Every structure is written in structure tokens, then in C-alpha cells.
Amino acid sequence: MERRQFIRQTGLAAAGIFAWRLSALAQDTPSYSGVLLPKHNIPADKQLPPGWVRSLYQRGRPTTYTKAKNELRYIGMPAGGLHTGTVYLGGDGRLWLWSIYNDEQEGIEPKTVRWHDGTSERSIRNRDGASYLEPAIAANHRILEQGFALLIESKGQTRLVELRQESWEEVSFEATYPTATIRYQHRNLPLEVTLRAGGIFIPLDADNSGLPATVFDISIKNTSGQPVTTAIAGWFENGARKISAKKGEGEKVNTVHNGTGYTRVSSTFQPASGTSDRADDGSTCISYIGDGAIANANANPWPVEADCFTTRNEKATTAAEEILVASVASPKKQLAPGATLEAQFVLTWHFNHPLKKVSKVKEAAGGYYYGTRFTDAAAVADYIAPKFKTLWGQTLRWRETYYDSTLPYWFLERTFLNIGTLATANTYRFAGGRFWGWEGVNACEGTCTHVWQYAQTMGRIFPSLERETRQGTDLGIGMQEDGGIIFRAEYENRPAIDGQAGTILRIYREHQMSADDRFLRQNWGQIKKAVNFMLAQDKNGDGMTDTPMENTLDAVWEGEIAWIVGLCIAAARAAEYMATEMNDKAFATRCREYVTKGSDNMSKHLFNGEYFIHRPDPVQGRSKLGSYNTCHIDQVYGQSWAFQVGLGRLWNREQTLSALRALWKYNFAMDVGPYIKTHLGGRPYALEGEGGMIMNTNPHNEPKPFGENVTWQLGYFHECMSGFEHQVASHMMAEGMTDEAMILTNAIHHRYHGSKRNPFNEIECSDHYARAMASYGTFITACGFEYHGPKGYLRFAPAFGRERFKAPFTAAEGWGTFQQQVNIKNTLCSIALHYGSLRLKTLSLQTTGTTITATLNGKHLKASLAASGKDVHIIFAQPVILKEGETLEIQVG
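The line above is the sequence of GH116 family glycosyl-hydrolase; the predicted C-alpha cells follow.
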């Protein structure tokens, strides 16, 4: 496995990990074979100003980065379709990176940098945090010529002004996802420009969200007191054979096509006879949506000159090694003071060549899913243009739905934006529809179960992709005869215990995010095999798995490990619930007994009075690496997962809260600098001056805390990896530790501030790391959201701000907005559906009351109330079917 080589290959083998400078450490610290270990040095008192903590809950405004503060150069928002390569939208509105050419290199930018960890300097590669230390800069990666320019005719003068930061006094980037808003202002120009850009992104519609396209929606406002005539032109370089073209190999061709309601210029490559098929053979295209456009197949030189707003050129060619640029301009329009011009452009691409790097995956040989739908970039444009109003309208509707909330803007941004990983070269959808992903861009293959099981976003936003992956990969080609799920499918030959349990939990989530029970019924036989395999890993029958197996820290640990034990307990509970739905009473009983026994024993034997631990194997003892009596970030991960899928409390609540408080006390620091300076060997995913939660600490300064034979994997213990941090934050939010959850999430948000690095790229083992999609779990628990599509069940229990709360939600077949207002006498709530449909039989709210009034489209619905703990269940006499545009209104009093 490549991931296991990362420390070895950077000089951090076991001996090197402990080659610390002893002079920097206290003389009375414990040691490993004479090598002193640093003392735990994370302060228990975080010294957080109460006013600052309160500010985290304020609604605020969208996070906005500006030219004035030099915050634009690192910004790279994934702006294409899902699984169509990486195209970044830069801080000033221009596209960059263009990793659409089936690149083999690891990360978004191949590099090795030097890092001084406080004791010595060492080499850091992409998977070790190179892009965290030195983020990619947009100006260095403008692979293709692309941009927009305004024509301004005012007071007898004609000017051309590009949409780039050098041309404007101020440029601001509003960092929402899936679309960003960029504003351009200059005191000496009579116009103000607003650009909205991004890929087509429609939750629940994976196909239309997987188009290789970026949309530019531009609004130009006359801010002067005089009429202004203006137009806007976009240009795009022919990107065919951009990387490999050599003299004499053929020619680039640009061709104009005038369609109904749009104009496009397609860019292709015509090879000379005998030239071979290349990874960068394909096509690009620029389109203007609307009538009357001026298209120029040869806009050289560029940026465009004034004649590009008047010159038409239907076809152009140039030699293979030359640059050929096409432009499309909107018709001129005279704007009265305060009036606006609206213009929409679409850039598309098509490079359907599979990576050789994934040749073990048979499906990869057929190319990509978008390649089966479209013959070239022009065909993509021809598909989008007549549907543009709907496709882009639904994208903007989701953006409005998601951010129209009482939750803080920064919180909504940070918990959602990691789904942009799906719109990078980290994921593929092969010709037959199979979803496949790396851990990080081009690093660690195989849609690894013990990494991807942390990701909560895709299962809620594009559940069909998760269902297909569970059925076709995990329960299909990845399943062994004994029910073990190979954790990297074609790239491994054994299961990982945490990946096994996490996949069972995901199966339950995928069932819940279905409209009916077909997914569960079709796969029940394979699901039972997977559960049986997991249950069998409890050798001594105490409900706590103790079979040594691979885990996400790339090691095989011996003994009974709280985080793995708890994860298996949660999976067994999910299996019990699925068995009950399948009327498989015997299997449900077996799973329930496992949960009961395991939960009791976990509380009795794995809780050290303050937090949950790793109990050594009775034979092996502590001879091998483990967390043992140290404070490990994932120690109650199973309960965290339980809150994501409505499994309820699994084991002792007070012990669980104690464990979370211990993580806060011993592992979280507002400045990790002092810790990483003394605890060496980890990769730099948080630096001096930045906050974060350390993976594993030795708070009691015990000797040999990690076992007798410490190996290279110990380096992980001293890192801050955001995916793990997000799952802890989601758990804290669910348990009422809302301050801690908000602070931890905000620490990650601060680490990825635009002034320091790309806000859209949370890094672990390479760029856009999949585990970071755990962030959406914190949004789920902030809403107290639960959903079960086949049962028609929906629940909201806001973790804070319940008196006046508003937030988006997604279901199996629709999405919309939930809103509630809690008064002394009653609770008013509504569900407004903005897309698709929603079937609802039971709605649960955390409130009290004895009477219920429910209306839909002015019609009263029959419903009854049933109390359960702190919840009130609203049970409809007949299933309610909400359709797009409808609102269900409820009053409980």
C-alpha cells in the first residue's frame, strides 16, 4: 500500500521518529529504551474569551476574501461537474489548474517542499502535507487562456476592462459552494460587475451534476448617472492536445455553431496521419446562452480587442504547437443609470481517456461516465443550452436553499464545501456508472472503506452514488466468501475491521436515504454475510471485537480497542434495525444481544474513569503499537456514527460525555505549536499559531504509552487530520457540547482561511481528502436531523437556536427547508419543498404539546400526537406527499 510508505520514504522510519533532541525535553520524562519522551503540554484551560465564543453563533455574512487584503491568490473552488477532473475557480473569477487531462501525478500540484519541524528539516511530499505548507498559487497554474472582458462606451470613450484583479481597485470573492459570487469595483469605471460561477450542482441528480462544465453568470450594472453602452466577451483557448502537442502532429481547429438560443465555438484537434491517441486528446467549447452573440473562432491576440465585439469568424485552424483562442461576445446594450446587463456563458470539456494508474479496475478501461453520454465538448454544450434555465436555476435554488438558514454562514460553508472533493480528480465515475475514489487526489486507491466511511456528505446529497457503491463494490466485487469486505476492492485482498463496520453503517444510511425498501431487500443476503463476518471477530464472545485486523491508522492492533469495539457495536445496532425491517427476528435478536453485551463490557472494561482506552491482548500484551491508556480521537466514534443514522444511545451517556471532555481537555489546543515542536514525527496539517485536535495524546505521561515496539505509524498520533476532527465535532454537537463543537469546527475553518491556503481543499494524505467530508455530519447533528425514507420518517431537534430555527434538508426524492418557531404556548413549523417530492408519515420535533393542526395547500390534514422522551411524534392518518413548491404547515400546542 502506497500510504504506508509515506514516512519511510521521507526518512521517518521507526528509529527516526524518536531521534528527538533531548536537550529540548525535561529530564524527568518517561523514555523508550533510553530515548526521552516529551511531556504532554496541551493546556487544559483554553483561555477562550466568552465574547468570541458567542460570536461563533452569530448569523454573520458569507465569508468574503478580498484583493485589498491579499486573500485571492490561493483560492481554488472546484467549479466543474462531479468526477470530471479538477477545474478551479480563482479568487478573481478566472479558471485555473485544469486537471482534466487524466493526470497521473499525485496531488493537485506535484511538489516536494522542505519543512523545519522545530528540530530538523525534512522533505514533505503531497501526501505528507506539501500543499498545506505551500499552497498552490493560481497565477502559476493558468494552463489554458481563459477570461472575460467588458466593452465600455461612455462619454465618447471606448474602453476594454478584463475581469481580473489587476484591472479593478477591489475584487471580492464570496466563498459559498457550489457557486461563488465575485464582485468587481473601480471608482473610475461607470460599471459594477457581479459574477456567479460554478458547476451545475443539483442534489439528488448525480447525472446532471456530473456534466464537464463551468457556468459564468454575469451581471453588469450602470452605477453612473449617464447612459453607458456595454457588452461582455469571453474567450477560451483550444485545449485539445494542450499538454503533448508537438510540431507537425496535426492542427487545432475552432468551429462556430449557432444553435437555437445559443452560440458556441467548439475546439478540437485534427491529428496528422499516424499520430497516436493521447491522454490530452479531446475537445473544449465556449458557449453564450442567448441570441445575437458575436463569435470569433480566432480571437488572437488576447485578451480580446474591441473588434472581437464586432468581428465574426466562423472557422480557424493553427499548427499543433500554436495557441488558438476562441471568443464569444454578448450583443451591445445601452444601460440607463441603474440598469443591468445579464449574460451567461458555459465552458465545457471532454477528455475521455482512463488513467493507466487505475488499470486494475476493469471498468476504467471504458473511460468515464460523461464520455458515454457525450461524444465531445460541443455535445455537452448542446445538451446544456436548451436546459440551461432549469439546470442553472436548480443549482442556484440549492445554493439559496442551503444558505437561507439561521445557522452561521461560516458554519454552513465549512460543513458543506468539502463535497467539492467529488468535483475534483479525486473521484471518477466510470463508463458503466461505477463510482470510484482515491483517498486524496491520485493517492491511495480503491475507495478505501476505512477512509470513505467517515464521509457523510455524499450519502445525503447524492445518495444514488453511495447505494451503487455499496451494492456493486462493497457487497459485490469487494466481498469475500466469508463476508469480509476487501477494504480497497481490486487493490487489496483483506478486510479492515473499521471499514467493515463503517460500511454496514453506511448500508443502513443508504437504506434510510431510499424512497422504499428495495435496496435493503435486494442486498439483504450479502448484508447478513458482512454482519456475520464482523460479529465473528469477537473471539471471546464478550461483544468486543478482538481479532487483529487492519485499521485506518495503517496498522494491525491487538486487543480490545474502544473505537473499533464501539464502531462494531454501532454497526450491529444498525444490522438489528435492518433485520427487524426484514422480519428476520432471529438475526435481529443475535445482533441485539451483541450490542447489549458489548455495550456493557465496553463501559465496564474499556473506561478508565475518564475516557475510553485500548485494553491489551491477554497474550500479546503491549508488545505492539496501540493507543492503550492514551487519549485517542476516535475512542467513541461508534456513538458519533449512531447519531448520524438515528440509532440512539449505545452505551453509558456519562462515560461518553467524560470521554469527549477528555478529548477537549487533553487533545485540543488553540495553538498546536508547542505540541508539535516537542512531539515529532507527524505530518504538518496544522502549524504553529493554528488550532486543532491532536489525534492521540499521553495526558498522564505514562512510560511506553504506545507499546513496546513502536513503529512508523506513531507519526499519525501527533497530527491534526480534519476528517477525524469533524467527526468529533459532530459528536460533541449531538451531545450538547455545542461550544466545543463550534470552536473545533471554527479552528479548521481558520486553518483554511484564504489568506493562508485554499479554503476549498482540506488536506490529509494528498489534496481534497475524502475523510474531510465528515464535516457534513456536524451540520446533521446541529439540525438534530434524522430521516428514514421507507418509513416516511423525518425528525428535527436543533442543537442550538431552537426558538427560531431554519435550515435546509435533503431526503430520498426531494429537498427543501425546515423552519420552526417555539413560543410559550405553541410550536410553529413548516416544511417547504423546493425540489422533487417528499413522502411523510411521521414528523418528530423536540417540543411538547397535546394538540396538532396541520395544513397543506390550505387543506387540513388528519394527524395525531405521540410523546417519546423529549420528542413529540406527529403521525399523519394518511401519508403526506409534498411536491415541489408546496409547504406543509404545523402547529403543536
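Note on the example: The CA atoms of residues 729 and 744 lie 6 Å apart. Confidence is low (pLDDT under 50) at residues 1-35.
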